[in-house]
Amino acid sequence: MHKYRIKVAVILSFFTLAALAESEKALVNGKLAICPDKPNCVSTETGDLAAISFATHKPEQAWALLQTSIVEQGGNIEKMRENYLWASFQTSVFKFTDDLEARLDKDNQLIQLRSASRTGYYDFNVNRKRLNRLIDAFSLKLNSDKLHNIHE
Question: What is the C-alpha separation between 31 and 143, in angstroms, rounded?
Fold first, then answer.
């Protein structure tokens, strides 16, 4: 009976931690959370990379294109608000879960991004590469009307 109680306690602890991790994903004072002092997190909010500018497009259009780009890059959108998005990604080799957060800044016509590993210390630039790929894919979608075939 004692072993059964321990197993139940461990399972409940796991689900409590998972729920706590999910509930913590949100804006902090209107901004994305600051990255911890570890190399496995990158954020446009702190200048690690440039934020996405959508100056010539409507915020709603840019926000929808971001969601499409995230899903196409293999992300699962976990939480969605008018100006906040949380998605999770699974790394290809070891199947670690990383979190991507986005904040829509309508006033400055920007989308701020943050990508971080849930576990570990080093990520071998996986999160930086993910944000770069996402920004590139988003930019192509946003500016698809400017693309043309030079051989036509």
Answer: 27
For residue 135, give both structure tokens.
């920004």
Q: Is 152 exposed, middle or buried (0-12, 13-18, 19+ CB in 10 A)?
A: exposed
Q: Of 28, 25, 54, nearest to 115 (Cα)?
A: 25
Domain containing 46 equals 27-146
- Along the chain (152 residues), what's the average pLDDT of each consecutive run of 10 residues? 54 43 76 96 96 94 97 98 97 90 98 96 95 96 72 57
CA distance 42 to 73: 17
CA angle 4, 97, 41 (to 5 degrees): 130
Helix (H) or strand (E) holding 90: strand 84-90
Say if 5 falls within a structural domain: no
